[in-house]
Amino acid sequence: MPNRWKPNVTAAAVIERDGHFLLIEEDTADGLRLNNPAGHLDPGESPVQACVREVLEETGYDFVPEALVGVYMNRFVRTRTGDDITYMRFTFCGKAAAHHGWRALDDGIVRAVWMTFDEIKATAERHRSPFVVRNIEDYLSGKRYPLDMVFTHDSVFKSPL
């Protein structure tokens, strides 16, 4: 099967502190967009590890995952190239720990920002993902699954021959 379809796997975080949620603002081909801290799964890491890494790289905060909120899938066509992409997002919730303000954020990340849910809903036209609000709604409704629901076999962590 030369044209086998494969979704892009991402991991995202819902982090709440005092009624505010941690988002990132990033410069994209479509302008400044807001998103949950999120990014692609790298080879040799589990979805939980990817989430911890992405939160640190995009916000400067250490992330302590506590639960899986859900697994989400969407299809996206890039406005610039017409590429048809499917994303599968594992969303975790947890706490922000130490902040490393000295860290440079990932390329394209303008800033990390704490916003209320009402502020987030009011900026829907600027959301990079259709799941920004949905992930927070599911979190606020109490959706929580044990982290071990996402099992990663040891073979993932071994280097290929």
UniProtKB/TrEMBL annotation:
Gene Ontology MF term list: nucleoside diphosphate phosphatase activity; ribonucleoside triphosphate phosphatase activity; thiamine diphosphate phosphatase activity
Matches recorded under SUPFAM superfamilies: Nudix
Pfam families (UniProt xref): NUDIX
Domain Nudix hydrolase: 4-137
Keyword check for Magnesium: yes
Enzyme class of the recorded protein, top EC level: hydrolase
Entries under InterPro entries matching the protein: NUDIX_hydrolase-like_dom_sf, NUDIX_hydrolase_CS, NUDIX_hydrolase_dom, NudJ
This protein's UniProt keywords: Hydrolase, Magnesium
Family annotation (PROSITE patterns): NUDIX (PS51462), NUDIX_BOX (PS00893)
Cofactors required: Mg(2+)
This enzyme's EC code(s): 3.6.1.-
Keyword Metal-binding belongs to the record: no
PANTHER family noted in UniProt: ADP-RIBOSE PYROPHOSPHATASE (PTHR43736), DIHYDRONEOPTERIN TRIPHOSPHATE DIPHOSPHATASE (PTHR43736:SF1)
Family membership: Belongs to the Nudix hydrolase family. NudJ subfamily.
Subunit organization: Monomer.
Protein name according to UniProt: Phosphatase NudJ
Protein source organism: Diaphorobacter ruginosibacter
